[in-house]
Amino acid sequence: MKASLERRNLVSSHWGIYEPVADPATGQIRALRGLPEDPDPSPIGLAMLDANGSPLRVRRPAVRAGWLDRETGASRLDTGRGRGRGREPFVEVPWDTALELVAAELERVRTAHGNASIFGGSYGWSSAGRFHHAQSQVHRFLNSIGGYVRHADSYSLGAARVLMPHIVASMDELMAGHHGWDVLAAHTKLFVSFGGVPAKNAQISAGGTARHRVREGLASMASNGCRFVNFSPVGADLEVPGAGAVEWVPIRPNTDTAIMLALACETILAGSHDEAFLASHCVGFERWRDYLLGEADGIVKNADWAAPITGVPARRIRALAAEMATVRTLVNVSWSVQRADHGEQPYWAAVALAAVLGQIGLPGGGFGAGYGAVNLIGSPERRFAGPTLPQGRNAVSEFIPVARIADMLLRPGETFRYNGGTHRYPDIRLVYWAGGNPFHHHQDLNRLARAWQRPETIVVHEQVWTPTARMADIVLPATTTLEREDIGYSTREALIVAMKPICVPPGEARDDYTIFGDLARRLGAEQAFTEGLDARAWLRRLYEDSIPHAAAAGFELPPFEAFWDAGALRLPEPAEPVVMLGAFREDPHAAPLRTPSGKVEIHSERIAGFALADCPGHPVWLAPREWLGAAQAEAYPLHLISDQPFTKLHSQLDFSSYSVGARIKGREPAWIHPEDAGARGIADGDLVRVFNDRGACLAAAVVTDRVAPRVVKLSTGAWWDPVDPGTPGSLDKHGNPNVLTRDEPASTLSQGCAAQSCLVQIERFEGEAPPVTAFELPTFVHR
Ligand SMILES: Nc1nc2c(c(=O)[nH]1)N[C@H]1C(S)=C(S)[C@@H](COP(=O)(O)OP(=O)(O)OC[C@H]3O[C@@H](n4cnc5c(=O)[nH]c(N)nc54)[C@H](O)[C@@H]3O)O[C@H]1N2
Ligand SMILES: Nc1nc2c(c(=O)[nH]1)N[C@H]1C(S)=C(S)[C@@H](COP(=O)(O)OP(=O)(O)OC[C@H]3O[C@@H](n4cnc5c(=O)[nH]c(N)nc54)[C@H](O)[C@@H]3O)O[C@H]1N2
Ligand SMILES: [Mo]
């Protein structure tokens, strides 16, 4: 079967694939529009074009004044070296000067301290395009000069990525393997979700969505008679057209595990568990059953036990358990529930509950891990990895779990546990970031700001003056996807796009590849990095290297020229519907899982062997350190949910008209329940101060009963905007929830991001509010 050429001119982005619209008179591109065949294009990407020419673009290489002085000997490296970050002005310098400075500094650091003193993790979403993917580029570059300290896992799925391979399958395998929406529509009668199926999140898929499927998928399930039960602190997480399709059960945040334990316990007490499936496809059921029935601790984990923990009435849990045992049921957990203290537990409990129901591997039954998290989940399209840039070999073995960056900077030499092993934090002298925004994404930003003072040098490639760029020593201006050639493709989508530039780079912005190529030459690694190829030659190489993978996926790709000339390629329709773990269900001996036993591990000998108090050998209820049941809830009686934003991808395009237009009084909206607002004299639209011991930010109240009482929802995405950057505890004027979140791991198993375990207080903001300055340029001085 052949992929078919389509003669089109398309723009690919994380928000989807768009068509540029040219002015008929001038031929100039003046707007973007959604793909005509996409039933639900995302409005976010439409703003990409106007944001491209923003005054916030980094136009020339810039160096922090204090860092330059240090270079010329005016200040010493070892005295308060990073204190000026985010405070001092920048000096713009010519490209040659900037490249000389960066190359010399890399050379000095690697010679004096070794490559294990360079942190190059560069976490973040970069941009669409398989070649100019900034994070891949920086990794390849640093590998070519001797390696760097990398990061493991992601903020998205820190706990799940470590846990799931031990008990069922890797997250990559599962993400590609979810039942297709067509399978759900045909078979699923009851869809029980923890954290919803947020269509707002499925606007996104890394690389370029051709068809946004979540709303149509949910609608076709509902019209086939599926009912939805959504345990969530936020009702808006699951919206399906049609009256009565969704039952929202408000739940106390971070208590999902208790509901799942109770559902399993009630199923077992009723004798409705699937003993045959548990015996043939699972190990460790008896150990878990004993725990659920309270054999050791005398506590039966039934519905009456779960009710006071979760705030969900016992009879609702019991009735649901009875229903789940009789109809084709899917248990879905959002990614957010594992981004919490003990985040492994709801994932393990969901798998174990699905095992008790005995529907794993049946069409439309079992468990799901993130329907709605990104458009990829539930895609019926072919499985093809697509063209990928080889990153080379990293000669440095040191790494950190991604969300431990502040710990690494603050505690060099100290040990940490990870996935059963013990490792040591390296001593970082130089931080290199391209394609991410840690001063948006990391928890407890005031703590990160302190940790960030420690390295000797921080280099950032950026398109715009983000908070992270402002906190750097050397900022190099990067191009955007609209300004360069690339190949756009998102896994499990049907279109591969030949991305052609539609804008001219502003100022002196350069491609990350060009920048790294120039640095590699200065450091004697040009051949290793570029292999003598220019960007176009790389596109051809990546494309041609993917031809055998396409063949393995059952289709043929045309020659590169034909693809490039036509502009787009459509992959053939998939051969068969995707049924998650169907082959394993059919024959667990012929298609075993890659777990130690080859089966679903309800109890894991391996994890039990790690002897971790915060992640024992089977799913358990462990109260989070910070939740509404904790002692701190007296001072901070509201649980903060910092979810993904509706109007942008993380911090990207925060300054766009679309994102700014959704602000209230220039601040990020904070959803609060009418009872909680009323008790505090807060009216809809009021400016509020959200605070705890770690920090405070301004936001604007949206008073709504779409959040549960005692829950505040403040989405991520606002560029951190402290009154006094660099001063711990400084008020953030814009509404970035990460000034409030805790910088503690989910557990010592995964060390995953646990942003969703966070308590706050909120009050009306009285008086004159300081203006938002996040979208002003930093100060520049001439030298
Ligand atoms: N528009 C948009 N879409 C995105 C992104 C974006 O930035 N913007 N980011 C993308 C990325 S990188 C990722 S990793 C995914 C993340 O996907 P998710 O992690 O699933 O997304 P969130 O929006 O953080 O959370 C989904 C919902 O879970 C609920 N929730 C939070 N805590 C709890 C809890 O303790 N229990 C229960 N039952 N529910 C809870 C919240 O109400 C929240 O609205 O989203 C992707 N999609
Ligand atoms: N409280 C809380 N915090 C969270 C989360 C949460 O749920 N709650 N979610 C977490 C999750 S799941 C994620 S994925 C992270 C998001 O992590 P972030 O790092 O915040 O993600 P982005 O905003 O996508 O950052 C990408 C940056 O790269 C830049 N960039 C884009 N393209 C290019 C390019 O071609 N070259 C260069 N040099 N730069 C480029 C963009 O301008 C942008 O600044 O946030 C995490 N933080
Ligand atoms: Mo993510």
Written description of the protein model:
The protein has 783 residues and is an alpha/beta fold. It folds into three domains: 62-148 and 394-491 and 495-570, Rossmann fold; 158-380 and 578-609, Dimethylsulfoxide Reductase, domain 2, CATH 3.40.228.10; 631-764, Barwin-like endoglucanases (Beta Barrel), CATH 2.40.40. The chain is 28% helix and 17% strand. Strand 13 (329-333), helix 14 and strand 14 (366-369) form a beta-alpha-beta unit. The termini are far apart.
Topology:
Layout: E1 4-7, E2 11-13, E3 16-22, E4 29-34, H1 48-52, E5 62-64, H2 65-71, E6 90-92, H3 95-113, E7 118-119, H4 134-144, E8 150-152, H5 158-167, H6 171-177, H7 181-187, E9 190-194, H8 214-223, E10 227-232, E11 246-250, H9 256-269, H10 275-281, E12 282-283, H11 285-292, H12 303-310, H13 314-324, E13 329-333, H14 344-357, E14 366-369, E15 399-401, H15 405-410, E16 415-418, E17 421-424, E18 430-434, H16 438-441, H17 445-451, E19 457-462, H18 467-470, E20 474-477, E21 486-488, E22 495-499, H19 512-522, H20 526-530, H21 535-552, H22 560-566, E23 567-570, H23 582-586, E24 600-601, H24 605-609, E25 638-641, H25 657-661, E26 669-672, H26 674-679, E27 687-691, E28 696-703, E29 711-714, E30 759-764, E31 780-781
Parallel strand pairs: 6-31, 7-18, 8-15, 9-10, 9-13, 10-11, 12-24, 13-14, 18-19, 19-20, 25-29, 26-28
Antiparallel strand pairs: 1-23, 2-3, 3-4, 5-6, 5-20, 16-17, 21-22, 22-23, 25-30, 26-29, 27-28, 27-30
Helix pairs in contact: 3-19, 4-19, 7-8, 9-12, 9-13, 9-14, 12-13
Bound molecules: ligand MGD (2 copies) and molybdenum atom.
The site of one ligand MGD has 34 residues, from β10.
